[in-house]
Amino acid sequence: MTEETLSFQAEVSRLLDIVANALYSQDEVFLRELISNASDACDRLRYAAISEPQLTEGDAELRIELSPDAGAGTLTVADNGIGMNREELIENLGTIARSGTAAFVQALGEKKGDVEQIGQFGVGFYAAFMVADSVEVFTRKAGEEQGWHWVSDGRGSFTISDSDQAPARGTRIVLHLKADKKDYLEPHRLRHVVRTYSDHIAVPVRLAKGEEEPETLNSAGALWTRPKSEISDEQYTEFYHHVAHAADEPWTRLHFKAEGTIEYTGLLFVPGTRPFDLFDPERKARVKLYVKRVFITDDCEALVPAYLRFLRGIVDSEDLPLNISREMIQNHPVLAKIRQALTKRVIGELERKAEKEPETYAGFWENFGAVLKEGLYDADGQRDSLLKLARFRSTTQDGWASLADYVSRMKPGQKAIYTIAGDDPEKLKRSPQLEGFRAKGVEVLLLTDPVDEFWPSSVMQFEEHPFRSVTRGGAELDEIEQAAEDGAEEEKKDKAEDEEAGPDTATLLAFLKQSLGDKVKDVRLSQRLTESAVCLVAEEGDMDLHLAKLLKQHQQLSEIAPRVLEINAKHPLIRQLTAKLGEGNGAADALEPYAFLLLDQARILEGEAPLDPAAFAQRMSELATRTLG
Ligand code: ADP
Ligand code: MG
User: Fold this and answer.
1) In the chain, where are the structural domains located?
2) CA 48/CA 52 separation, integer angstroms
3) What is the DSSP letter of 357?
């Protein structure tokens, strides 16, 4: 026998410190985690046996067995699943592979985390150290000669040696229970814990009882094959916790059987909270694919579109062939059909919820709206449905607005759906570009998710109303009638003022263009400003303001192209400038600093730095000195 002692990865050590020393009221979840691993091991063996039937020869009935030994003070959890070889033991029970786990360990350490969630982070095995002060693992990988023994007291290291006491196939985990955890030797306690958390496990979980026949503790048999009427809400939720590695309550579930040209069963859940890996760049869906009750893969991109990747659960197909590789299955035409039907079904359910339960739907939208919107440019035929499901914050409404709501509130003469993009809804609401829209009572949708930069340009319109950014192109505000409550009087007055601003502004515009040169694309009179003196907008065909900034931030764009400076002819500052310019004889030269101050002001309003901060500061001081003097 060769024995070797190895150190846990630092992060595992830290997790073990926390788990072993803290008092958790829910320490019973250790059993859920060990049974879940044993069940996964049985699933994997069943899959491997499709191509290598000899793996299960002589011992085809997969099972999990709990054996309490009061004399030794040990609880043993054994399975005859796939087992582990030496490398796998070291890799799986000594390191942490999954991203996001560090944050969990941190939260646990600060007592802000919930140990209930341990399974979610791919470290469920270590929960064993909540109840045991030493853990032994005997294991033999299916089809291999050599068995192994792993042992650890959870304090920084573990020891591995070859072993002839390993089971013929699979894994036996022996927990040396802590003095105050001996209640896990009692059958009624084990029975209760298994029924609470592991009833839905498809392989039988049995309790060994010495000489007597072992007792099966769970319902055993794939939950999704049972009729809905025989499954309780609790059982559904436990199952969700197991397949999703989640600890929350699902928001909704779909359990259905499709019969016809293709036959499959689905049991899908929409989580009640955001899974931590929702925005992983991989955008992977985690719905598990089964074929005739045999687990095939949980990494099947073709099963669910990326914009539904928040779904959890299983799909069990009757038509897919068992004997082809996981990779080949991805391209199978049956899978494409299942995906299409599944997508429709899920969208149908979301439509139903949006109508019947607008409040909980709002919660769903807050969690997953940003993901669902990715479907708007994935263009798989669901665009119209997704547009109807979409919800937005807006300048005139509290809470969420649908596009249909928006359209019903459009003003006479208004043709477009107006939007403004940025990160922070509160800041966005104060954007100068919105002033003219506010004055006319025109609603503007606030687009605050990164994905919002991309879909409007491919969707183009909703019910024939084009999407238009208020920070791009002309504002067309004169085509929209004044809000009724403001009265016609004011409009007349505005018109009169516009005309009054008329002739001289041409000189001002020319002066500003001349002074600012290539720092701006153009200088124009604004329709959209009513309070501020200036703002920046993008030229019609150019990239929208926020997108340009976003791309620059991510180094996708080296320079933001010059934009259009709009000026508010009615603003006192602009009027005075116009008047001064009219005085002629060299006035323009003296006024040049003001041109730059106007541009810098507009930049600052966009959250950008002045063009040349030092020059800006100097101009400001000069001006202030003059005013004070
Ligand atoms: P997770 O199950 O989320 O991967 P765990 O900490 O529960 O995280 O388990 C880590 C890994 O250890 C598993 O992914 C699996 O590869 C291996 N493992 C644990 N228990 C068993 C078992 N009974 N049989 C085979 N492999 C196991
Ligand atoms: Mg696990």
Assistant:
1) 3-221, 224-358, 392-479, 504-628
2) 6
3) -
Give the separation between CA 327 and CA 324, rounded to whole angstroms.
8
Ligand 1 atom nearest residue 97's Cα: 4
| CA-proximal residue: ligand 1, atom 13 (nearest) | 92
Identify the CATH number of the domain defined by range 392-479.
3.40.50.11260
How high does pLDDT run on average in the chain? 91
pLDDT class of 494 with cuts at 50, 70, 90: low
Residue with tokens 């026949």: 213
Nearest atom, ligand 1, residue 79 CA:
23
Query: pLDDT by residue (tens digit) across 186-229?
Result: 999 999 999 988 998 999 999 999 888 999 999 888 999 999 99
For ligand 1, the distance from its centroid to the CA atom of residue 219, given in whole angstroms, is: 23
What is the C-alpha to C-alpha distance for residues 345 and 576, in angstroms, rounded to an integer?
63
Question: What are the pLDDT digits (tens) for 430-440?
Answer: 999 999 999 99
224-358 against 504-628: fold identical: no
367: Cα separation from own chain's centroid: 7
Is any ligand 1 atom within 6 A of the Cβ of residue 124?
A: yes
| pLDDT beyond 90 at 476 | no
The tokens describing 538, both together, are 């993008």
Tokens of 569: 């002819």
Spatial distance between the Cα atoms of 606 and 532, rounded to a whole number of angstroms: 13
Which residue type occupies 467?
F
Per-residue model confidence (pLDDT) at position 220: 87
> Could you tell me which CATH class the domain 3-221 is placed in?
alpha beta
Cβ contact 610:533 at 8 Å: no
pLDDT surpasses 60 at 349: yes
Q: Given a cut of 60, is residue 510 above it in pLDDT?
A: yes
Distance 298 CA to ligand 2 centre (A): 14
pLDDT bin (cut points 50, 70, 90) of residue 497 is: low
Which CATH superfamily does the domain covering 504-628 fall into?
Answer: Heat shock protein 90, C-terminal domain (1.20.120.790)
Task: Say how far apart CA 146 and CA 331 lie, in whole Å.
Answer: 37
Q: Which of 40, 44, 121, 201 to mutate to test the pocket of ligand 1 (most atoms within 8 A of CB)?
A: 40
Residue 59's Cβ-count burial label (10 Å; 0-12, 13-18, 19+) is middle
**Nearest alpha carbon, ligand 1 atom 12:** 92
CATH architecture observed for domain 224-358: 2-Layer Sandwich (3.30)
